[in-house]
Known about the structure:
mainly alpha; 2 domains; 5 helices
Amino acid sequence: MARMTDDERKRVLVLLAGGASCRETAKIVGRSASAVSATAKAAGIDLRQLTRTRSRKRLDEAIAKAEILLQGLDNPKDVGKWVLTLSALLDRRRAYDEDEEGSG
């Protein structure tokens, strides 16, 4: 395949900065994931850090939704299930935080 144009590179970087994964970006721009990864690396972007940031953001969103849902529950059995789910999400977020501190 032909070399990536400057416009394609810019689009790759914008997509990655906007939260798209390497594979999503590759599909959108019609390039391989390795080409997207090489473009990110050349621009000084740490794809592993972006992935951790996306994962953390998704966990935070899930926790926020669970907290809202918990407020509306009346049945004690339902509350118990949601508390367990929220506890698992919080444990995952804590693990991400510890990983970030270790790699930071």
